[in-house]
């Protein structure tokens, strides 16, 4: 778990009473009471829940009932348990719909996050073998390299390394890239995007990536490399993306 997510003890959090005669199982009432407190921000990400004994006393139910209600929220990903330490509120996840090509801002806004992008580098570099191969260039040809860090509610979520052929759009070197993606800028110049091809892997965070994303070394990340293709078949952008495993989720529709 990220070192950026500091554990905050909450002591005795006031909990709504549960009613034994309303037809709703007690564990479900506890589950929904905790869910409402998480949604309302009364229990913030990283907050440690009171222990089972405290929750048992506050709700006036058995430990088994408390355990079942809490376990269902753990199964949903709203809570997580650290063995020997306690149960904590999970980070909210930026949900990315990977059935279509969307921007970070689109996804973050849909989930109610305050999103921003910080550009860490924007320069011309020679294309290395992997980049040249993805962009159908000769090795060493100039490409515009943009490294950016994406934030949601102030937390660094994704580190992006993007490459665009310099010959297609040299003006991109001077474009403000804090409110748009590079392929969006290319579209505004007349290059129409048709589709993107990408591969996603789960990896442990290396030291430099973990440092930028404010995570512990070895914590899980989602690593993605993506090539954006134009209508004429030419590759427009190649990107390497490193996203926090505790704050980023992918949604895909699978058809048979």
Write the layout of secondary structure elements.
Layout lengths: L7 E2 L16 H14 L7 E2 L3 H8 L3 H14 L2 E4 L3 E4 L4 E4 L6 H7 L4 E12 L2 H7 L6 E11 L2 E11 L16 H7 L4 E12 L2 H6 L7 E11 L4 E10 L3 E4 L5
Parallel strand pairs: 1-2, 5-12
Antiparallel strand pairs: 3-4, 6-7, 7-8, 8-11, 9-10, 10-11
Helix pairs in contact: 1-3, 2-3
Describe what this molecule looks like in 3D.
- There is one protein chain.
- Helices cover 25% and strands 34% of the residues.
- Strands 6-7-8-11-10-9 form a six-stranded antiparallel sheet. A two-stranded parallel sheet has the order 1-2. A two-stranded antiparallel sheet has the order 3-4.
- A hairpin with a 2-residue loop joins strand 7 and strand 8.
- The chain is α+β, with helices and mostly antiparallel strands and 256 residues long.
- The chain has helices at residues 26-39, 52-59, 63-76, 104-110, 129-135, 182-188, 207-212, and strands at 8-9, 47-48, 79-82, 86-89, 94-97, 115-126, 142-152, 155-165, 193-204, 220-230, 235-244, 248-251.
- The chain has seven helices and twelve strands.
- Helix 1 crosses helix 3 (63-76) and helix 2 crosses helix 3.
Compose a concise summary of this entry.
The chain is an alpha+beta fold and 256 residues long. The protein has helices at 26-39, 52-59, 63-76, 104-110, 129-135, 182-188, 207-212; strands at 8-9, 47-48, 79-82, 86-89, 94-97, 115-126, 142-152, 155-165, 193-204, 220-230, 235-244, 248-251. The longest helix is centred in the N-terminal third of the chain and has 14 residues, at 26-39.
